[in-house]
Inverse folding.
């Protein structure tokens, strides 16, 4: 009977200690909660205009908090790129540029970060300029991204940059140059063990169109 009481007391102490530990665990900062909510809503299986609105509000809230507090520059860079990317998905290209450029400014404060982290926002911001028919601005950013790719050949989504550069060259009548970029896009894509064959089809169609122009 005494053993039962002792065991019961130990269990009660363990529960009390565990509950106190959880109670004392600090809640994540507001910007992390907002960002986590935004990520969850932006990846729902069946998005609606309401989930998109809530996701965007949460992304912007996270960025605004960090812009104000200067608390976590690395997280601000990530949140700015994610916000710009989500706006781009929504077709709100002009607004997306603001957040990509915010990421560019934050990058100047990240002294120990590799240049490779700039590849994705440079390409995506270039895409927004391209969609707005601001080709000179797009080319500048694409060139910077291409320079990073030369230094970091394993950066993700490199094939998309090459394809886009091919499209730009094609649109200006430089078909030979576009062919060079399309070949780079195809070889970069197929060098991976697993890749989306849909992209391979697109790139080969673009390549065939350039060859056709050159007869």
């Amino acid at each position: 009977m005494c053993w039962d009481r002792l065991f019961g007391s130990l269990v009660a102490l363990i529960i009390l200690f565990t509950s106190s530990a959880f109670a004392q665990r600090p809640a994540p900062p507001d910007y992390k909660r907002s960002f986590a909510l935004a990520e969850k809503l932006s990846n729902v299986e069946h998005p609606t205009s309401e989930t998109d609105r809530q996701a965007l509000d949460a992304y912007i809230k996270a960025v605004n908090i960090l812009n104000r507090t200067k608390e976590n520059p690395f997280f601000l860079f990530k949140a700015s790129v994610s916000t710009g990317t989500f706006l781009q998905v929504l077709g709100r290209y002009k607004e997306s540029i603001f957040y990509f450029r915010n990421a560019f400014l934050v990058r100047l404060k990240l002294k120990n970060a590799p240049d490779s982290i700039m590849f994705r926002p440079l390409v995506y911001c270039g895409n927004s300029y391209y969609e707005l028919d601001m080709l000179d601005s797009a080319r500048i950013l694409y060139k910077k991204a291409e320079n990073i790719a030369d230094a970091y050949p394993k950066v993700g989504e490199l094939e998309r940059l090459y394809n886009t550069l091919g499209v730009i060259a094609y649109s200006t009548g430089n078909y030979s140059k576009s062919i060079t970029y399309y070949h780079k896009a195809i070889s970069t894509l197929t060098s991976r063990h697993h890749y989306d064959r849909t992209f391979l089809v697109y790139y080969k169609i673009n390549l065939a169109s350039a060859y056709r122009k050159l007869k």
